[in-house]
Amino acid sequence: MMAQSKKLEVRHEQIDAESHGQRIDNYLLRILKGVPKSHVYRLLRSGQVRVNGRRASQTYRLQTEDVVRIPPVQISAASEHRVVPVGNALPVIYEDDALLVLDKPAGQAVHGGSGVSFGVIEQLRKQRPEARLLELAHRLDRETSGLLIVAKKRTALAALHELMRNGGIEKHYITVVSGRWMNPREHIRTPLYKYLTADGERRVRVQADGKLAHSIVTLRRRWKTMSELGVELKTGRTHQIRVHLTNHGFPLVGDDKYGDFALNKRLAKDAGLTRMFLHAARLQFAHPLTGEILRVEA
């Protein structure tokens, strides 16, 4: 049975300060929920989307008071009415007019896609339908718990991305690894290379021609066969902590991609421990709009 669709009328949207500087393709993808990405770009290429009465390229950056003409488009009812459960209120550690910081639960993706119907950001938007903008400033692995920044203003989002690119956000994690870590403090600087497995899954490995990655590891506690470590990320590569520590011979407990699979299976059976032991515990950065130093912990 074919999905029903809803036809929209021609719309004229006036750009406000919050959307100033945003590329028009990203703006359209944000406001035309349920419209396939390929169709949005087709509308731009064909000139059906106009800015101030003129054609606009997909890279055009919107200016305050621009008027964008959006033609009638078909929105799949299945997409438009996709059920995103409200769920329990996500724990907010810090919030102001520009941003908020959540304590993300382990096992929950930050956004939908790749077989995940919805994630933290979709749930947050469902819980706050009045919010004009809620966008992820960065990401956490699905298995990782802890602090996640969400921008509430376009200007804050752009500034947070700039901070990320320039290393302006201190990111501290806590993890439990298999093995007895001995050094009180150690710098790991090994290059990481992203690749796809035969099944199309994303993986990372240490490789000479990879991107430089830098982690600072400190010993917090040590037991007979395991250690609790603090890790500060000086770079933000995909799976950086997981691959750095596994390459050092200290796989994260519960890591189903790079970990000690026999240990994980034993802990799940004997103690019911099934999550990966990695938590984003502290963030410190200059507020993107005020410059005030924020330190958030969870």
Question: How is this structure best described in words?
Answer:
By secondary structure, this protein is α+β, with helices and mostly antiparallel strands. The chain folds into 3 domains: 5-80, Structural Genomics Hypothetical 15.5 Kd Protein In mrcA-pckA Intergenic Region, Chain A; 92-167, Pseudouridine synthase (2-Layer Sandwich), CATH 3.30.2350; 170-281, Pseudouridine synthase. 20% of the residues lie in helices and 31% in strands. It contains 7 helices and 18 strands. The protein has helices at 24-31, 37-45, 77-80, 120-127, 154-165, 240-247, 261-271; strands spanning 5-7, 11-14, 50-51, 54-55, 67-70, 74-76, 92-95, 99-104, 135-136, 145-151, 170-178, 185-189, 192-196, 202-206, 214-222, 226-233, 278-286, 293-297. Strands 7, 8, 9, 10, 11, 12, 15, 16, 17 and 18 form a 10-stranded mixed beta sheet that branches. It has a 4-stranded antiparallel beta sheet with strand order 2-5-3-4, with no helix packed on it. Strands 1-6 form a two-stranded antiparallel sheet. A hairpin with an 8-residue loop joins strand 9 (135-136) and strand 10 (145-151). Mean pLDDT is 90; it is low at 1-7 and 77-81.
Brief description of this entry?
This protein has 298 residues and is of the alpha+beta class. The chain has helices at residues 24-31, 37-45, 77-80, 120-127, 154-165, 240-247, 261-271; strands spanning 5-7, 11-14, 50-51, 54-55, 67-70, 74-76, 92-95, 99-104, 135-136, 145-151, 170-178, 185-189, 192-196, 202-206, 214-222, 226-233, 278-286, 293-297.
